[in-house]
Write a structure and sequence with these properties.
Elements (H helix, E strand, L loop, with lengths): L21 H23 L3 H22 L6 H12 L11 H15 L7 H11 L4 E2 L2 E2 L14 E4 L6 E5 L6 H13 L6 H15 L6 H17 L8 H7 L1 H12 L6 H34 L7 H11 L6 E2 H8 L3 H14 L2 E3 L8 E4 L2
């Protein structure tokens, strides 16, 4: 497809000499650092078990949301089970996990748990191959474990129906990738660079601009960014998800990315957007920590209660934020039991004071946590 009539950022003579106005982003950068310090300081006082649970929640959200940005919806229980097994966190019964989920989890965990290991071409090839264990993206065979070769034309980011498609971006030609990726990886692994947080933002932009793979460049760019953010935090444990924030603001994300890739090498606007989104991601993680604390205290309080497996499963659903109202019929469907069994399970929990009837109206009786 014919490209637009503009110069892309990688076509500038000074590429990739990034420029930005530090006076513009100094405030947002300091605000992010304060927010990170508050979050990590709070988690330092809650004990290893709670930190592991908070990390599990953040990583689960990260895997789910980085895939949603690419149009893929993974099973949340499978993702959580895969991460819990790898981290050694006890969550009770584990859900079945397919190899596609395992591949995404493997990439995200490798990027963060081994953040201090050098980022190499072979490591990126491993991530890409893990994302496509069958060698196919949807119905199309793609080249995995290698840079793209542009056999079918230039790498373009397009949208719209066939015949009226719009080119948002065109990546550098494949014959430049060996030199371009070598320069990028040397920069990532070199210590004498800008603030680690700014470096994460620049690396995200740089990688997604190179677009070196046939597919999932955005997902891998976010993993590269997370690797550098983990280095910036000085911790391989993750407690916030930038991917979740990007997914919730994806229209703004694509807009600033497109404007930056068609602009000059002054990337101040991109870094300002990145820092603001990161700040919101860290602030939102405080809500995740609150939920983890509530859930942990709940199970500490009811540790001696004789709950059956169905009751434990549904109570965890409620603690994780149940979508809609919990009725007897929903209990039966989720727990795979008869309505009579569901009613008996609920009745026992009401008698113990764990559940109560919801005060909200409706034709069916609904239940909620008592406290």
């Amino acid at each position: 497809m014919k490209r637009g009539e503009w110069t892309y950022i990688w076509e500038h003579p000074d590429w990739p000499v990034w420029r930005y106005e530090l006076s513009v982003i100094a405030g947002p950068l300091a605000a992010v650092s304060r927010a990170q310090g508050l979050l990590l300081g709070r988690l330092a006082d809650v004990g290893m078990t709670l930190r592991n649970q908070a990390s599990l929640a953040a990583l689960t959200e990260d895997v789910l949301k980085t895939s949603e940005i690419e149009g893929e919806r993974l099973n949340a229980d499978s993702v959580r089970s895969s991460i819990a097994r790898r981290l050694g966190v006890d969550i009770g019964a584990l859900a079945p996990v397919d190899r596609h989920v395992e591949g995404v989890v493997e990439m995200v965990l490798d990027a963060t748990a081994h953040c201090n290991a050098p980022l190499t071409g072979e490591r990126l090839f491993g991530w890409h191959a893990a994302l496509f264990p069958t060698g196919f993206s949807a119905m199309s065979r793609i080249q995995t474990g290698a840079w793209r070769n542009d056999t079918h034309g230039p790498m373009q980011v397009i949208s719209g129906p066939v015949g009226r498609q719009r080119v948002h971006f065109e990546a550098p030609p494949a014959d430049r990738l060996d030199a371009e990726t070598t320069r990028f990886l040397e920069w990532v692994n070199h210590d004498s660079n800008p603030s680690p947080v700014l470096k994460a933002g620049l690396a995200h932009l740089w990688f997604v601009t190179l677009h070196p793979f046939d597919d999932s460049n955005g997902r891998i760019a976010r993993a590269v960014g997370d690797l550098l953010l983990a280095r910036a935090d000085g911790s391989p444990q993750r407690f916030y998800s930038l991917s979740a924030q990007i997914q919730s603001e994806r229209h703004g994300y694509y807009d600033i990315l497109e404007r930056t890739q068609r602009g000059s090498l002054d990337v101040t606007a991109w870094l300002a957007w990145f820092l603001d989104a990161l700040h919101r991601a860290v602030d939102n993680a405080q809500h995740t920590v609150n939920a983890v604390l509530v859930k942990t205290r709940f199970w500490q309080r009811w540790a001696a209660a004789p709950f059956n497996e169905r009751q434990i499963k549904l109570l965890n659903r409620l603690l994780d934020g149940f979508d809609g109202k919990l009725t007897t019929s929903k209990w039966a469907a989720i727990a795979t039991c008869s309505p009579d069994t569901a009613l008996r399970d609920i009745g026992e929990l009401v008698a113990l004071g764990v559940l109560r009837r919801s005060v909200s109206g409706g034709r069916s009786t609904a239940y909620e946590l008592a406290d």
